[in-house]
Design goal:
Length: about 525
């Protein structure tokens, strides 16, 4: 007798077949078809498993699990080789990753011992998702530089600029040298003691300086800010590659200690005074450019650099920004009064040419210098189209090719100007080292002396108000000697005496004038 529940299902099935216009034979055909499909799928799985087993047999020879209770680790010999060496194979179910490595021995007992050791060291790392492929310090540096190389760009803050990339290479060289000095260059990064980074900053600080030939820098202490930037670069490399790409865990990352830095942010570069700047500028214009026994091309180059020197000190831009300036970036301010339009120009600093990655306009009285540059180019047949650089090479091999000046050129020219003008007695260096970046410091300090609004100054220079306040405000103290000492001590007595002398002189003039008027009458 058919159970009630089963009869109920049969009745429901009959009703469904009748509703769809099917009979029992149609149902049997469908069931047979489903059975055949299931059978084919099972046969396919079995064939795949058999093929995998055959493939495995071609690779795994004398396979043996390391532990009876675990199926995730085994040792085997590679059937494709004749060496007879044993290998270890670890499979992690959680991450679905396989680790395989040669044990470099043909002795089974030794292979088991080595396999147990490797398993103990790497199983926990596999669970944490750490790669079992190890890197040395050089491998880490090379991997990081390859990644950063692909991120190079001409636009600041959109990746890494070419100049910053070159500086990064130099910074990471310190770490490679430090690791080598500690005889850890062949050690895997996960095996390097984490406290190795604690002495890195001090090690750089104590290294002899050899980058400057100037006596001022020989034997002097390295900049702690620069050393800290090196440490920051190395930390970022470890975080971006070693940790984030799962070569090591955070617990295996070296610990670094930054050097203490004084909060005083006074400019580290020396700056010219207003009188010195003008004296050097006049010397360049009347003496340096007209020096005897120089060729006509050299005279033109000196004239061009003279205008560069003047414009640089009057716009406060970074060296890179002024070198990347094009004629299409220069315009007249429509808001200027007619008389000011003769002198002022608006210089547009494009985002890709700016250190901050933000474009800005600089307003400066440099129209005369720019017109003079145009005249020089016109004399030698160089056009000044919108895409042409304002400062471009005029050597015969590069003339008309729109090749912009580079940093080495302006550094060499400035050094020649500073040394030549000092030798001519135009100014006294007094151990100061003037660089092209000094022009930016000059511009800032002079603007503050003129009481330019600090907000406007920050916009013009492409920097922050906080930076100006911490860096330049107190840098003008020495330039304001007369204002700061007015009414104090000896100056007070001198002022009082001068007031009395002026009053007496005025009384004499008045008396003479009165006597003269009486004689006329």
């Amino acid at each position: 007798m058919t159970p009630p529940e089963e009869k109920k299902n049969i009745d429901a099935l009959s009703a469904l077949l009748e509703l769809k216009g099917l009979d029992a034979s149609d149902f049997i055909d469908v069931v047979n078809a489903l059975a055949n499909i299931k059978k084919r799928d099972q046969e396919k799985i079995e064939k795949e498993e058999e093929a995998e087993e055959q493939k495995e047999n071609k690779i795994f020879k004398n396979k043996e699990f390391l532990y009876e209770t675990r199926k995730d680790v085994c040792i085997y010999q590679d059937a494709r080789t004749k060496s007879g060496r044993w290998y270890i194979r670890i499979y992690d179910e959680k991450t679905k990753k396989v680790f395989s490595k040669s044990l470099k021995t043909t002795n089974k007992i030794e292979a088991k011992y080595l396999a147990e050791k490797i398993y103990a060291e790497n199983k926990d790392r596999m669970r944490k998702g750490v790669k079992l492929v190890s890197l040395t310090t050089k491998d880490l540096v090379d991997t990081y530089l390859k990644i950063r190389f692909k991120q190079r760009t001409n636009t600041p803050h959109a990746g890494i600029t070419i100049r910053s990339y070159d500086n990064l290479i130099k910074k990471l060289k310190y770490w490679e040298e430090y690791i080598k000095e500690n005889k850890l260059q062949k050690t895997k990064i996960e095996d390097i003691p984490t406290d190795i980074g604690l002495g890195f900053g001090t090690w750089i600080l104590e290294k002899p300086k050899s980058s400057y030939s100037n006596n001022r820098y020989k034997g002097s202490e390295r900049s702690r800010e620069t050393i800290n930037s090196v440490i920051a670069a190395v930390k970022k490399m470890y975080k971006d590659v070693a940790v984030n790409r799962k070569y090591i865990t955070m617990g295996e990352m070296p610990i670094f200690e930054y050097l203490k830095v004084q909060k005083d942010s006074t400019p580290k570069r020396d700056t010219l005074t207003y009188e010195e700047y003008n004296a050097i500028r006049r010397w360049m214009q009347y003496k340096w450019v007209n020096e005897k026994d120089i060729k006509s091309d050299e005279k033109l180059k000196r004239r061009l650099y003279g205008f560069f020197f003047t414009i640089h000190h009057n716009i406060g831009a970074r060296s890179k920004e002024i070198l990347g300036l094009k004629w299409g970036d220069i315009s007249i301010n429509p808001n200027d009064a007619p008389e000011k339009k003769r002198f002022n120009r608006v210089l547009f600093i494009a985002a890709e040419n700016s250190k901050t990655g933000m474009s800005r306009n600089i307003i400066a009285p440099v129209a005369q210098q720019l017109d003079s540059i145009r005249s020089i180019y016109k004399e030698i047949g160089i056009e000044c189209n919108r895409e042409d650089y304002v400062f471009q090479h005029i050597a015969k091999t590069k003339r008309g090719m729109n090749v912009a000046w580079g940093q080495p050129l302006i550094e060499k020219r400035l050094k020649a100007v500073c040394e030549g003008s000092a030798a001519a007695g135009v100014w006294e260096p007094n151990d100061r080292v003037i660089t092209n970046y000094s022009a930016r410091h000059y511009y800032a300090t002079q603007a503050i002396m003129r009481k330019v609004d600090i907000y406007d100054l920050a916009l013009n220079m492409g920097t922050s108000i906080q930076y100006l306040q911490s860096t330049y405000i107190h840098a003008t103290t020495l330039m304001k000697s007369d204002d700061l000492t007015k009414g104090q001590g000896i100056y007070k007595a001198m002022e009082e005496r001068k007031e009395k002398e002026d009053a007496a002189e005025k009384a004499i003039r008045d008396a003479l004038s009165k006597d003269k008027k009486q004689k006329i009458r």
